[in-house]
Amino acid sequence: MKLGVNLGFLLSGLRVALADPHVRVLMGLVTALIVVATVFYRLVEQWAWIDALYFAVVTIATVGYGDLVPRTVLGKLFTIAYILTGIGLFVAFAAALTQRMVAAARPEER
């Protein structure tokens, strides 16, 4: 039963966080950047859509398994720029989302 209560509490905090305009703007920017990267890798590296999306998400989340690697010079240069801009944006989104969820969980701020 406690898992159900905690999951409900987590989902409630997530709903509150996603209603915050700042969090929504950051989420939109992260989503747009992932979409741009996915299309880029599909067109330039000629990867399947799922591989391009997978690489875009794994790269921006700093996981970097190494199973896919850009082969073209343009792909490598884009990936450098994508990492430098994307990681900061992704971390800002994750921090804002977490901060808002924690604030929603505090009784004095509800």
Polypeptide structure, described:
- The chain is mainly alpha-helical.
- It has 4 helices and no strands.
- The longest helix has 33 residues, at 73-105.
Topology, pairings included?
Blueprint: H1 2-19, H2 21-44, H3 49-60, H4 73-105
Helix pairs in contact: 1-4, 2-3, 2-4
Characteristic key phrases:
110 residues; mainly alpha; Helix Hairpins; 79% helix; 0% strand
What is the compact description of this entry?
The protein is an all-alpha fold. 79% of the residues lie in helices and 0% in strands.
Provide the residue-averaged pLDDT. 90
Major sheet characteristics? none
> Any idea what the shape is?
elongated
Write the CATH fold name. Answer: Helix Hairpins
Q: Roughly how many Å apart are the termini?
A: 24 Å
Radius of gyration: 17 Å
Order of helices and strands: HHHH
Show unreliable segments.
Answer: none
Estimate what percentage of residues fall within beta strands.
Answer: under 5%
Integer count of domains: 1
**Main CATH class:** Mainly Alpha
Strand runs, count: 0
Number of helices: 4
What class would the helix/strand composition place it in? mainly alpha
CATH architecture, please? Orthogonal Bundle
How helical, in percent, are the residues?
over 70%
